[in-house]
Amino acid sequence: MADFEIIEQEGLRLVKISLNSETVRTESGALYYMHGPIEMQSKGPSGVGGLFKALASGENIFRPTYTGTGELFLEPSFGGFHVMELTGQEWILEGGCYYASEEGVEVGVHREKALTALKSGEGFLDYQTKIGGHGKVVVATPGPVEELTVRGKLVVDGRYVLARPVGMGYEVQRATKSLLGSLTSGEGLVRTFTGNGKVLFAPIPYWRQRLFAQLSSSIAAARARK
To answer: Could you tell me the pTM of the whole model?
Structure first.
């Protein structure tokens, strides 16, 4: 099995993958540098249906694979990375969280119900990444990750749940039963997860990641006003 290591230097974090005649897949554009006899291949989704699904979901059409022996380094980030290992389970990742995985992991698309997608602010089509199979998966995170055990119900005001098992209920709904109560509480809509199992939870971002996001948002708003 490929070896995944999270390296932290100068406030940045990056993923180092050591290969020994193995294959891994990464998100498009994730390569930083590599050394050793490693071959990169980039194939699009199979069939016309796969192409249209990728285009509709906003998923990257091409996810390159790297095969060989050597070391592969992925782009650093002010955010973080979490390595999870699948042993036959299926998970749903929040959009933008998938970063890399071993060859035995299947990567697909999960679409939420139209009403849930609309409430979440993603429009009528809210696509997330579905993973399954066997092997390690690298999840991009805004901050430190903890495994939170859900017993019945979890209510979250924000995109803090990065991954949940397939079969766990998910819905975007008002914070209280009445519209007035939601407005006066100041909470509005919340994300509700129902069932039993563990989720990957990252409620507190790294401060550099938060500062970078705020600066990027301010620059984008300033450009929009021109």
So the answer is: 0.82
